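Notebook entry, structure prediction.
Reason for the run: the old model in the group folder had no record of what sequence produced it. Starting over properly, with the input documented here first.
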Amino acid sequence: MTEQNVRELVYRSCLALDREDFDGFLALCDPALHYVVTAYSPEIRKEMTWMEQDLAGMKALLAMVPQHLRRTGSLHRHVSVYQVEAPASDGTIGALSSFLVTHTALDGGSRLFAVGHYHDRIAATGGRHLLKTRRAHLETRDLGIGLHIPI
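New structure, fully documented this time:
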C-alpha cells in the first residue's frame, strides 16, 4: 500500500460525499467500516459522539437521505492529508487529514460550515484500498439545523 493510494482514497471519499454519490462512497468502504463523528465539549470537559455507524448503518442512513428534511444548497469538502503512517501490525495504514466544509446556498453565497480532522485507518483488501475506520473530529460544534449526510 503506497502513500499515494492512501491519499487518493481520502480524496475520493470526500469527492463522493460532495457529489452525494453514496454508492460510490460505500464502494470505498471496508465491510468492517466504523464511522464516527466526535467533538470535544469544553463545557462538560468530555468528548461527545455525534454519530457512530458500521457499514450496514451507514448504508441505511444514506438510503434515507432522499426522505430527509434537508439543508438546501451543497457542501464541499476541502481536505489536506497531513500524515500517512507506516503499516500497523494488522496491515492497516493510518492517515491524518484536516478538512474544511463549505456550504453554498441556492442563492450562490458560500460560508464556512465545519472544520475538523479525519483520523482514518485504511485496509488493503483484494488489491484495493478501503476505508476501514474514520473518526471525523469536529472543532466546529454548532452546525445549525443539522446535516443530512456524514461529514
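Summary: The longest strand covers residues 110-125.
The old model has been moved to the deprecated folder.
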